[in-house]
Each structure stands twice: as structure tokens, then as C-alpha cells.
């Protein structure tokens, strides 16, 4: 499994590195072209890979802990409530390192609201969950629009940021995000076996020896932290976390230890390619926010899931 | 060895009240809980397994349930709930192997665990389904897989909520024949009274949250059942016959 994924990842990395407004011939590079390649493109490609990994990892965890194949940071309303926190933080002039903290808090609030609304008697209703997620998305977007209107000057750049993209990249941010991804990945791998048992109903899981409430709390916080940090740096990039766990599951089975790894690698792969596409699709050097591309891809995939799983979603 | 002791129990949820005298179940006993719908069978099972919090003492080997860590509980007792489900397409083998979680204390299962799981699948006539996806099985097949999962936990006490629900006659008989040989304690709410009478040794008869009787198989009479279910009961050819 790993060999295939890593080679695909390598190919995607090369493609992403050499796509963009300036065509670069690797065998005859000028000084400027070398600077573009190493100074601009390399960190950006790595950054898109790391963010893709973060979103996919969080999606894999959400789908399992919420027992819902349609769950990811976007459909649960977590991403938009985290974005709300980030926008408010930026608008109120909070120091940059504190913005993700506020995003984490509002993101957790949004997720908990959706969770509380959709759970009754220990059973999560998947349809209610999606509806509650939609509501949280709408409310968060409304408040974001209001703050854009109210703080017009300080936030004019945020409009672009909200569409999701890699416009502000530097090595510090990259290293911070990569570290966070690595630590979360290791922590989640360590509880991978227990996570599997969350796929069972609550009574079975508890009597099989898993402290369901504690494990769910831990997973929620960690997954939401990944989303909050990703959103604070790149805005809302939807549906990466929705698609990749499904592809991983259909390729390598449902076991969470494998699914966490495969989802993360596939997320990195997907977002690297999507960002490469966003940089090359419009001729003449303009670039598309990558969030638009992933939303297009993800929307179609979401419809496909709805079509194939409709029966089971409504009737449990 | 696990011995279950219940101090006097008084549990209220909404309109429903469950009151039981002090009771004790010894290692290896096969106990059936009989009662009509809503008599408190499932609530009792949830209290005994710690899924609902009781305000009186439930002790396993003189240790209060509330003091036993969740993972250790899973080595003392296993539960087959009435409606068990698994989200995402796990294979039958994986589902049954997950039962070993508490025994391996959260570590990856060893080759030994896998072998024991294979053996169990064979004993329960499930080998052919091992590689199938759990969610694609029929209701009865899923039930048998979940039972295998509970058995694979190798706990000392098995709480099986209607072990033969949605099973065909042959598989019901096979399962009970298998359970008869185990040294594990068995505590089971059951609806099929004649099947229960042929297998269990002890009966708790519940009605509207009260214990009507705690009797052995030899002591179980038509009158007991008539009072429990509000029906007329007669006996013919060693079976109970029910009528209104």
C-alpha cells in the first residue's frame, strides 16, 4: 500500500512543482527560475501537501466518531465556525499566533452544537447532523459577512482568503503545520485500534472495553485543532476531508490504522494536484482559489454518496 | 471466577421504576430473565453492564462496578445488545477479532488471537462468511457474527439480550448447544419460553419493574408464567402452551 501511495505522491509533487504561470525547464534553469522554484513553489507545494494531509486526517476521524460517511470539517460546520473565530481574531487585531486558538474554540463550539443537536440516547442521526451542519454553516457565514461589512478596511483581503487558497506561505508556517500534522498523526495512530471500536454501537463499544465518551472527546479536539489551524492559514478548503477517507477505505479496507495513513497521504496528493490546477487553469498568470476546485470536486462526490447511501442514511 | 451480587436495587427513569431485592448469581449459572415488553429486562441489563448508572451497589467479585475501569469490565463481562451495528464495511473476521480488544489490553492482536478467532468462527459455522463485509449480511447472519464477537471477548459472564432473535430454528438450537458447553455465566432476557425452558437452569420473572419470582427450572410452574405474561398456560408433551 505504502509503496504505491508514496510513488503517486512523488509524481504529484513533481507535477505540482513544475506547474504554474512560468514554464520551467529543469535541465536549463536561469537564476530567477531557480529562485521561483525553490523560494516560491517548493514551500507552496509542501504547504498544500501538509494542509491536505491535515484536512484528510480530520475527515477520517470525523466520519468515524460521528458515524456518518458524509461528515468532514465542512459538512459538520466545523470549518466555517473556525473561520468565524479566525475572522473575528483578525478583525479585532489579535496577534497572529492567537488566531488559530480562537478558531479552535469557535470550531469546537460549532462542532459540539451540531453533535448535541443530532445525538439522542447515544445514537447519532446522520440526517439531523447534516442539517445542523448546514445551519451552523449559514449562521457562521452570516456573521462573517457582517464582520466583513462592519470592519471593511481591515478585512478587504479576507474575502479572497475565505475562498481558500495558499496565498501566504512561509517556512515558519509550513514547519508549524507540518509538526502539528506529525504529532496528531502519531497520537491518532496510537489509539487506532480503539478508534475501530467506535464503529460499533455505543453499548457494544463500551462493553468491549472502550471509554467511548473520553475517546470521542479526545478525537473531536484533535481533529478540530487540525481544522482550526488549517483554516487560519488557508481559509476554507472544503471536501478534501470528505473524499479521501472514502477512497482510502475502498482501496485498503476500513481498519482505522490503515485508513488514517492512507487518508493523510491521499489528502496531501489531492490538494497538491488541486493547487497545481488552480495555478495553471487560467492562462496569463492569474490563479484560482483552490477552494473553488475542491468544492467542485467534493460537491459532485457528495451527490454520488447521497445517491448510493440514501437508504442507509435515512433508515440507519 | 466472577460472582455477581446486586444489593437492593431501586432505579427510576421517567415513569418507569425498577425495584429488585438483593440477588446473587454464581459463576457458571445459566439464568434467563422472562417478562413482557417494558417489564424492565433491558433496563436491568443496562444497569448490570454499567451502561446506565445504578444508585445501589452492583458488585462483581465483591468489587463495586463503578470502581472497575472500563477495559477491565470487558474482561469480566461481555454484552450482546439487541441492536448491534457497525458503520463502514468491516469484514466479519475483523468484527469478531475486535472482540479480543480487552484481552490484548489494547495492543494489536497476535497470531494466537487470530487463530483462536478462526477456531471460534468454525465452531459457530461462520467460516464461509469470514471475508464478507458485515453490512452485507442478512439480519440473522449479523446476529450470529455479533454473538461470535461477544464470545471472542472470553469474558466470565455473558449478557446476551435475546441470543436467538432473528435466528432460524437450526441456528438457534446450534447456538444453545454451544452455549450449554461453556463454563461462562449466562444472563439472558429471552422471549422464546420453550427454548429457554429446555436450556436455562434459573429464571427471574419480571413484571412492571418488580421481581415476581426467582426460581429454578424444576420450580417453574404454569402459574408463574401465567402471572408474568397475563395469559393462560397449559402443558402438553413437555412444552408450555399459551392462550388468551
Distance between the termini of chain A: 32 Å
Beta-strand percentage of chain B?
25-35%
Shape of chain A: globular
Quaternary class: heterodimer
H/E series of chain A, N to C?
A: HHHHEEHHHHHHHHHH
Query: Strand count, sense and closure of the main sheet of chain B?
Result: 6 strands, mixed
Number of helices of chain B: 8
DSSP helical segment count of chain A:
14
CA-based gyration radius of chain A: 19 Å
- Rg over CA atoms of chain B: 18 Å
* Structural class by secondary-structure content of chain A: mainly alpha
Biggest interface, chains and residues, is: A-B, 26 and 35 residues
* Element string of chain B (H = helix, E = strand): EEEEEHEEHEHHHEHEHEEHEE
Alpha-carbon distance between the two ends of chain B: 43 Å
Major sheet of chain A: order of its strands? 1-2
Structural notes for this entry:
The complex is a heterodimer of chains A (316) and B (244). Chain A has 316 residues and is mainly α. Chain A is 75% helix and 1% strand. Chain A is built from 14 helices and two strands. Chain A has a two-stranded antiparallel ribbon. By secondary structure, chain B is of the alpha/beta class. In chain B, 31% of the residues lie in helices and 25% in strands. Chain B has a six-stranded mixed beta sheet with strand order 8-9-10-5-11-12, sandwiched between helices. Chain B has a four-stranded antiparallel beta sheet with strand order 4-1-6-7, with no helix packed on it. The longest helix of chain B is centred in the middle third of the chain and has 14 residues, at 139-152. Chain B is globular, with a radius of gyration of 18 Å. Chain B starts with a strand and ends with a strand. At the A-B interface, helix 9 and helix 10 of A face helix 2 and strand 8 of B.
Amino acid at each position: 500500500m505504502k509503496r504505491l501511495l508514496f510513488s503517486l505522491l512523488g509524481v504529484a509533487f513533481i507535477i505540482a512543482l513544475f506547474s504554474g504561470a512560468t514554464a520551467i525547464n529543469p535541465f536549463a534553469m536561469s537564476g530567477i527560475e531557480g529562485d521561483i522554484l525553490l523560494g516560491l513553489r517548493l514551500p507552496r507545494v509542501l504547504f498544500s501537501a501538509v494542509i491536505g494531509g491535515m484536512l484528510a486526517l480530520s475527515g477520517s476521524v470525523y466520519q468515524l466518531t460521528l458515524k456518518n460517511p458524509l461528515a468532514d470539517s465542512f459538512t459538520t460546520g466545523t470549518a466555517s465556525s473556525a473561520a468565524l473565530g479566525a475572522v473575528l481574531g483578525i478583525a479585532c487585531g489579535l496577534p497572529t499566533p492567537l488566531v488559530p486558538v480562537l478558531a479552535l474554540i469557535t470550531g469546537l463550539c460549532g462542532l459540539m452544537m451540531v453533535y448535541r443537536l443530532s445525538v439522542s440516547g447515544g445514537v447519532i442521526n446522520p440526517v439531523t447532523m447534516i442539517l445542523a451542519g448546514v445551519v451552523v454553516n449559514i449562521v457562521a457565514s452570516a456573521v462573517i459577512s457582517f464582520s466583513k461589512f462592519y470592519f471593511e478596511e481591515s478585512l478587504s483581503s479576507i474575502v479572497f482568503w475565505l475562498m481558500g487558497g495558499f496565498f501566504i506561505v512561509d517556512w515558519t508556517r509550513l514547519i508549524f503545520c507540518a509538526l502539528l500534522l506529525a504529532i496528531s498523526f502519531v497520537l491518532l495512530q496510537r489509539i487506532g485500534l480503539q478508534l475501530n471500536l467506535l464503529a460499533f454501537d455505543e453499548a457494544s463499544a463500551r462493553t468491549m472495553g472502550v471509554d467511548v465518551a473520553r475517546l470521542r472527546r479526545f478525537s473531536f479536539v484533535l481533529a478540530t485543532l487540525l481544522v482550526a489551524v488549517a483554516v487560519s492559514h488557508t481559509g476554507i478548503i472544503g471536501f478534501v476531508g470528505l473524499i479521501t477517507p472514502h477512497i482510502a477505505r475502498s482501496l485498503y479496507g476500513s481498519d482505522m490504522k490503515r485508513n488514517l495513513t492512507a487518508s493523510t497521504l491521499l489528502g496531501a496528493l489531492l490538494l497538491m494536484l488541486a493547487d497545481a490546477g488552480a495555478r495553471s487553469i487560467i492562462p496569463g498568470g492569474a490563479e484560482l482559489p483552490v477552494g473553488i476546485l475542491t468544492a467542485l470536486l467534493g460537491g459532485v462526490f457528495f451527490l454520488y454518496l447521497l445517491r448510493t447511501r440514501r437508504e442507509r442514511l435515512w433508515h440507519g | 471466577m466472577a460472582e455477581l451480587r446486586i444489593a437492593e436495587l431501586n432505579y427510576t427513569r421517567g415513569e418507569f421504576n425498577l425495584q429488585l431485592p438483593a440477588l446473587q448469581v454464581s459463576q457458571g449459572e445459566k439464568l434467563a430473565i422472562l417478562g413482557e415488553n417494558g417489564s424492565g429486562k433491558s433496563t436491568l441489563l443496562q444497569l448490570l453492564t454499567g451502561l446506565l448508572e445504578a444508585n445501589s451497589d452492583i458488585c462483581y467479585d465483591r468489587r463495586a462496578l463503578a470502581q472497575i475501569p472500563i477495559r477491565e469490565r470487558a474482561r469480566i463481562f461481555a454484552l450482546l445488545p439487541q441492536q448491534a451495528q457497525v458503520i463502514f464495511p468491516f469484514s466479519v473476521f475483523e468484527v469478531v477479532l475486535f472482540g479480543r480488544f480487552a484481552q490484548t489490553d489494547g495492543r494489536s492482536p497476535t497470531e494466537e488471537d487470530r487463530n483462536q478467532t478462526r477456531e471460534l468462527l468454525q465452531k459457530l459455522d461462520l467460516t464461509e462468511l469470514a471475508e464478507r463485509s458485515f453490512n452485507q449480511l442478512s439480519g440473522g447472519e449479523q446476529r450470529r457474527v455479533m454473538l461470535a464477537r461477544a464470545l471472542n471477548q472470553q469474558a466470565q459472564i455473558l449478557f446476551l439480550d435475546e441470543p436467538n432473535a432473528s435466528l432460524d430454528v437450526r441456528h438457534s438450537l446450534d447456538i444453545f448447544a454451544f452455549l450449554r458447553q461453556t463454563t461462562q455465566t449466562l444472563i439472558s432476557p429471552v422471549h422464546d419460553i420453550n427454548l429457554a425452558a429446555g436450556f436455562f437452569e434459573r429464571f427471574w420473572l419480571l413484571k412492571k419493574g418488580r421481581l415476581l419470582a426467582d426460581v429454578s427450572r424444576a420450580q417453574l410452574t404454569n402459574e408463574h408464567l401465567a402471572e408474568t405474561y397475563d395469559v393462560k398456560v397449559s402443558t402438553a408433551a413437555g412444552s408450555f402452551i399459551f392462550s388468551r
